[in-house]
């Protein structure tokens, strides 16, 4: 069933359709929020809240585009609200490494696993240090696979602004992580 068919069933009261829709999009929303916050438990809570907002907003959903983009826009706005809120400002920002955040492999020795975690932590810290508007654009484009047009829609900006934010964000990340040349061309998903 398509997302739109599931939404029609949900609007008619189907709990099963709701479960299917949430399961279909949960991983994508959680991944965006985790990369945005850098904290597993916070991302879990915020993801739950996004899906609650989604369910409350479904009656006003208009099939004007792809449902996933509409849902990610809810996630973007919810994260903005969270970072503006008192709870975030009062929260002590200690990061814990969790097994859920990093893929494990039985075929690597301890040193390889440590290096991989160290690299992942370095990338995560670099992404978190980007200005918020660049962080959003990079996460949506690179990790969630949205095209520039879709990033622009989700963040409420023009395509040229979204493209610029992605380019600058990737350039800053490259410089922070590898000390790379800022003038190399970044790779991002173009409109096709």
From TrEMBL:
InterPro entries: RNA_pol_sigma-70-like (IPR039425), RNA_pol_sigma-70_dom (IPR014284), RNA_pol_sigma70_r2 (IPR007627), RNA_pol_sigma70_r4_t2 (IPR013249), RNA_pol_sigma_r2 (IPR013325), RNA_pol_sigma_r3/r4-like (IPR013324), WH-like_DNA-bd_sf (IPR036388). Coiled coil: none annotated. Residues 21-86 form the RNA polymerase sigma-70 region domain. Keywords: DNA-binding, Sigma factor, Transcription, Transcription regulation. CDD domains: Sigma70_r4. It holds the Pfam family Sigma70_r4_2. One of its GO terms (biological process) is DNA-templated transcription initiation. Residues 121-173 form the RNA polymerase sigma factor 70 region 4 type domain. One of its GO terms (molecular function) is DNA binding. Belongs to the sigma-70 factor family. ECF subfamily. PANTHER family: RNA POLYMERASE ECF-TYPE SIGMA FACTO, RNA POLYMERASE SIGMA FACTOR HI_1459-RELATED. This is RNA polymerase sigma-70 factor, ECF subfamily. It comes from Paenibacillus polysaccharolyticus. The lineage of its organism: Bacteria, Bacillati, Bacillota, Bacilli, Bacillales.
């Amino acid at each position: 069933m398509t997302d739109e068919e599931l939404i029609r069933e949900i609007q008619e009261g189907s709990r099963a359709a709701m479960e299917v829709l949430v399961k279909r999009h949960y991983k994508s929303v959680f991944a965006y929020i985790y990369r945005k916050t850098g904290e597993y438990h916070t991302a879990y809570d915020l993801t739950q809240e996004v899906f609650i907002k989604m369910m409350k907003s479904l009656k006003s959903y208009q099939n004007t585009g792809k449902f996933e983009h509409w849902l990610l826009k809810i996630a973007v706005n919810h994260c903005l609200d969270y970072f503006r809120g008192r709870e975030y400002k009062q929260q002590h920002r200690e990061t814990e490494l969790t097994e859920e955040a990093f893929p494990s492999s039985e075929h690597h020795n301890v040193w390889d696993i440590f290096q991989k975690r160290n690299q992942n932590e370095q990338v995560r810290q670099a992404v978190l240090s980007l200005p918020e508007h660049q962080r959003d654009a990079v996460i949506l484009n690179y990790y969630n696979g949205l095209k520039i047009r879709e990033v622009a829609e989700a963040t409420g900006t023009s395509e040229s602004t979204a493209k610029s934010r992605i380019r600058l964000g990737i350039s800053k990340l490259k410089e922070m992580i590898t000390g790379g040349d800022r003038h190399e061309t970044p790779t991002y998903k173009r409109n096709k």
